[in-house]
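Justification of resources, computational component.

The compute hours requested in this renewal are based largely on the per-chain cost of generating structure records like the one below. Each record pairs the submitted sequence with a full structure-token output. That output is archived, and it is also reused by downstream analysis tasks.
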Amino acid sequence: MESEITVRPWYREPWPWFILGILSLGPIFGLGILTIGLSNPPEIVSGDHAPLGRALVDTNQRTAMARSMGLSGALRVDGGQVWIELGANDLKNLPDSLLVKFVHPATSDGDTTAVVHRNGDNQYMGELAGSPSERSRIVVSDLSQTWWLGGRMRSEPDAPDEIRLSAQRL
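The structure output for this chain reads:
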């Protein structure tokens, strides 16, 4: 009595398909990561940076310029209006228009920008295009961005209406 061994073809066995299934996960996950990477490009670096070899270093030039001019200020946002009061060593040398950026901490989609115009010796007023995030960083500069002042929005309910602006690194 001879026992007959039946040999099935390889494609009828479960183990080759199991191994091929595991190996096929590499290209599938690779394409998924590639899709995510291409649809979410990195944000632009903001700040006062200059290339040094393959890295970026903070030059701190705009902050130093604001400090040398003795700049400081206060900002108030009410609805779609922005009011800024600046203090400086020489108020007559202040520009007629300022650029105000509300920079969202996580994504550039939440950024809001406004140009405010002088309506007094050291007072500026303008309209906001959208409402800034309650956690935004505020950057106030002249239109050519040779100096800047910084501040941060406050999300606490008992926070004062005025936001202090000072020459600080961003």
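The domain at 61-165 is CATH 2.60.40 (Immunoglobulin-like). The chain is about 20% helix and 30% strand.
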